[in-house]
Structures are given as structure tokens and as C-alpha cells.
Structure to design on (192 residues):
């Protein structure tokens, strides 16, 4: 017997493209689904992610992640290029071509954690833009517990895959997270 979770219960007006990107936990009991839509309160268009879980009988929505604002200085609406979920279903990462936003489930709710900024954006880039010459996060892969993320992309004159490892550190009685580059593969130059 099948169970359905209805996208029409979504609070966003004019939503479309439900399922443009989808990711699933290793046991198939949690999924992340991206979609676009207008927020009913202020009618701004944005990209969003629904997190749903299956209890053995029914699918239910755990959270809708809306118009993500990054913690690494970029303030713009996410345009999905890639979406990935850890095998344990407790971490989800997504990219918009200029950085990786990451959320994790802390056994109570989904919370945003430190993301991975685009290493090719300089502090002089006042408003990052979609640029065919630079895309960070065109594809993502994540290990089973979400502590290692591979990020593919392209920058002027090359394509690349960068591997990041999550490090937890203690800061003033609070736990902090940092993503450290520990591997990089460059391909032949493209477009030339």
C-alpha cells in the first residue's frame, strides 16, 4: 500500500517545479525535495526545500527550508544546482553555484549550520551573480554521516572537485563547525 504527502499543502503561492532536485537517506525513510514558489506573506519569489519523513505508514513534512540566507556573507535567493542528503538522513546540503548551504537534524528539528563559501568569490564581489565562467557546487556528494562533502564546479580555465571535511571546535563554551579543504582534483581546461 502506498502513502502520499500532498505538495498542495504547501504554504507558498504559485509553487512549481516540485521535485526539481530530490535527495534521500540510505534507508529511504527521509527525503528532501526542492521547489520554487512565492511566499504568500510578501509575494517574493524564492527556492525552497521540503524535508519529509516516512513512519512506516505515512509521509509527513518535517520542515520547509525557505529562501536560505547564508552565514558566510551572501544574501540572495538560492537557485538550486545540486541537493544531497547524508545516508543517515541527518544532514542536507545544497548549492546555488556560489556556495553550499547545510542543514542538520538534531533529533528535534532542522537547523542551519556553517556552510561552505565559494572560494572563488572575493571580498570585492559586492553582489555575487550567476556567471557561466564560475560555478561552485554544480554537483555534490556526501559521506554517510555528512562530515565529508565533495563539491564539483568550474572556474575560469578549469573544472574541479574539492573535498571538505567537517571539524568541530570549541569557542567560548559553544561548539563551532568549520569545513576544511583536504583534497582537490583539477581537470583539463574547458572551453579552450
Amino acid at each position: 500500500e502506498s502513502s502520499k504527502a500532498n505538495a498542495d499543502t504547501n504554504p507558498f503561492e504559485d509553487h512549481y517545479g516540485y521535485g526539481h532536485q530530490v535527495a534521500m537517506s540510505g534507508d529511504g525513510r527521509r527525503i528532501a525535495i526542492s521547489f520554487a514558489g512565492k511566499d504568500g506573506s510578501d509575494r517574493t519569489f524564492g527556492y525552497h526545500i521540503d524535508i519529509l519523513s516516512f513512519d512506516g505508514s505515512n509521509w509527513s513534512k518535517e520542515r520547509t527550508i525557505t529562501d536560505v540566507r547564508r552565514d558566510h556573507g551572501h544574501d540572495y535567493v538560492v537557485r538550486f544546482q545540486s541537493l544531497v542528503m547524508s545516508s543517515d538522513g541527518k544532514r542536507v546540503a545544497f548549492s546555488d553555484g556560489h556556495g553550499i548551504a547545510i542543514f542538520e537534524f538534531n533529533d528535534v528539528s532542522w537547523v542551519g549550520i556553517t556552510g561552505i563559501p565559494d572560494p572563488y568569490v572575493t571580498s570585492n564581489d559586492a553582489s555575487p551573480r550567476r556567471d557561466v565562467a564560475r560555478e561552485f557546487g554544480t554537483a555534490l556528494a556526501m559521506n554517510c554521516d555528512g562530515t565529508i562533502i565533495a563539491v564539483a564546479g568550474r572556474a575560469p580555465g578549469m573544472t574541479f572537485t574539492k573535498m571538505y571535511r567537517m571539524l568541530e571546535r570549541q569557542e567560548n563554551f559553544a561548539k563551532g563547525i568549520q569545513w576544511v579543504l583536504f583534497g582537490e582534483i583539477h581537470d583539463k581546461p574547458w572551453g579552450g
The radius of gyration is 17 Å. The chain has a mean pLDDT of 76.
